[in-house]
Amino acid sequence: MVSGINIGDARAAKTVLTIPTDEINQKPVPSWVEWVERNSKPLVRKRHREERILTKWQKKGPMKKKDWKKFYHWATTKAAPQERTFKEAENLYQAGGGKAGGSMDWMDLDEKLVELAKPRIVNKKHQFHDDDSPYNPVITVGQPPHRDRGRPFQPPSVPCCFQHNEVEAEFWSQLRFPVRKEALKGQASPRIIDLAKPRTLPPTPHCPIPPKTPGPLDVPPPKRKKFTPQGWRLHQIRLTYLSQPMNRGHYEYFYL
């Protein structure tokens, strides 16, 4: 096995360049190896560490033996549960004693409780009156209706009967309703003018209208068919074209 190759003449020059055999057999390194080695390393993100601000109850590090002794001494005196002493309830209705100084029967006790449960001043129950005016026009769309407290007006006093039709016509012709000052000074908004117009409704037909027969291109697609609306319409156009009679021009000569 050849260890290396000498380049140069030993007689002509003293320096000899020796190339190892491994470098001769080694393949050239690809150009992407350097990029991979440079970008395959994990990123080191430096984050700013906030300083810890201790409260007056916190300590910088773990507690020492001296601190544990101090804590145990505090816990034995301050953190131990206290025994609460409850005052015994006095029996106010005990036979032969109590505030009244005499015995009280159960029947008398019930009557006493009913008498004490009654209020000192008995007021009448308040009756709520809903003064909701029937005239509540919606002035602004999206807002609650506007209550007009001046309506409805008191109905005029109409006689029960009239002696003649002319008397009744004269009564209604001379009848006047009071007009408020605010109504005389106010200006009607476009919404009020729109509400004041009579509602237009379509005329009532004298006979039932049969349902409209849809055209061949307006028929909705049947269920459980793999048709989109556009595909169904194209299918109907195709069927309409195929249903038309064929035009054979070369046969028209025999029918002339």
Plain-language structure description:
This is GL12645. By secondary structure, this protein is mainly alpha-helical. The protein has a domain of 28 residues. 29% of the residues lie in helices and 3% in strands. It has eight helices and two strands. Strands 1-2 form a two-stranded antiparallel ribbon. The model has no long low-confidence stretch (mean pLDDT 79).
In a nutshell, what does this entry contain?
This is GL12645. The chain is mainly α and 256 residues long.
**In angstroms, what is the radius of gyration?**
55 Å
- Note the beta-strand portion: under 5%
Mean model confidence by pLDDT: 79
Number of strands: 2
Q: What's the quaternary structure here?
A: single chain
Give start-end ranges of low-pLDDT stretches.
none
Spatial strand arrangement across the major sheet: 1-2
The total of helices stands at 8
Can you give the helix content as a percent range? 25-40%
Determine the structural class based on helices, strands and strand pairing: mainly alpha
Order of helices and strands: EEHHHHHHHH
Largest sheet: 2 strands, antiparallel
The shape is: flat
Beginning-to-end CA distance, first to last residue: 108 Å
Biased composition (Pro residues): 200-220
Pfam family, one: THEG
InterPro entries: THEG
Organism: Drosophila persimilis (Fruit fly)
